[in-house]
Please model this.
Amino acid sequence: MVKAANSRDTTPGSPPRTRILVVGGGYVGMYTALRLQRKLKAELARGELEIVVVAPEPYMTYQPFLPEAAAGSISPRHVVVPLRRVLDRCRIVIGEVESVDHAKRTATVATLATKEEGTGGVPFGYDELVIAPGSISRTLPIPGLAEYAIGFKTVEEAIGLRNHVIEQMDIASSTREPALRDAALTFVFVGGGYAGVEALGELEDMARYATRYYHNVKPEDLKWVLVEASDRILPEVGAEMGRYAIRELRGRNIDVRLETRLESCENRVAVLSDGTRLPTRTVVWTAGVKPAPVLAATDLPRNERGRLVCTARLSVDGVEHAWSAGDAAAVPDLTADEPGKDTAPNAQHAVRQTKVLAENIVASLRGQPLQDYAHAYAGSVASLGLHKGVAHVYGRKLKGYPAWLMHRAYHLSRMPTFNRKARVLAEWTLSGLFKREIVSLGSLEHPRAEFELAAGAVPSKPLTRRHEDPPKGGKGRNPGQNPGD
Model:
């Protein structure tokens, strides 16, 4: 094997060992490390090489299944993949990379231990860097957004939102105040991309089903609003399928507002740019993403959108021994008609980029030629709820049940590991035989709150969600809280 520039020794007296540092445990990070440990199996066995994965969580979340997890069609633990089990030949470090000084081949890493010790981040040397931290929600300075809204990028947010929706139905069922009831049953989703449309479609389906178990809440009492700043939703599936999606959602009594923006959600009132004021206890923000902040704390080149400037070989442009792919990377689209266009930061490209990325890293270590990444966009699929969907794949347009079936088949095929594929398929089979689960386990978010209350202390985390009203002070429950909330 050809050693990288700064091969390092981890054990006194041992030969120099090359360290590959993978920043991020998402789809790109996990699959790149998985392919590397397979292709470099012999070198790993001989102790010539070490693969280190630094990730904030010990699992990878398959985000396309978050809407189904929120709706209860899939168990939350089955939309995540444990990194330690899959990457058994890699060293897993649970923490965050705070900064990267690539000129010195050093990253500053804050782990769970360093946070407990209060020592701050520690320097971590490497030879090859794969930086794939993914993205975070792109927010705007909208009054009340940070206090009352919730995102939809993590499994915790998906399950928290599911619990919250069911709790709002419980509040509406038990209150005698019409204003509180209306606000509890109004759900506002901001952003007409995949995340917003699929989350709204699945949760509306679940809530409509749940109304059969409430004596005084009917499907027509629920008010769902989708707010989109542009003149279309789901642009990836094309204009025709986007218009069909709007008709489908409006046919389910979902209020789709195009060319409309959220201007405020202070005091639990969503104020839209068209002048509409919607008292609501639920605002879901899915209006785009932006690169992870760690990219700004590196000495690597970035474009105007904050993504790393990469070559078609998935190496960082103008820099040796640094690689990237997925949401963090601006990769030239060699199949595009117009020059200078980058590949879209979506799962379709990320899936395929990991293969080329891992092969190029191996080729670089062995002194072999590298290959370019080139993939023509195949199309997109999107779910609009149970048995409903849209698809535009290789020029063919599908809608309704066939599109929904294609959506499930495609994402099942892309779900990492056979273990998770089998579990998801088994849950889909069982959900077809039995009724939906409509249980809210909101107390899981703050499990010590009840014990602290019983012990006579002020709960450090009151029995409210982060998208609920902040506590007014005093011991015990929030005085404004409803029984069962």
Q: What stands out?
A: The chain has 14 helices and 24 strands.
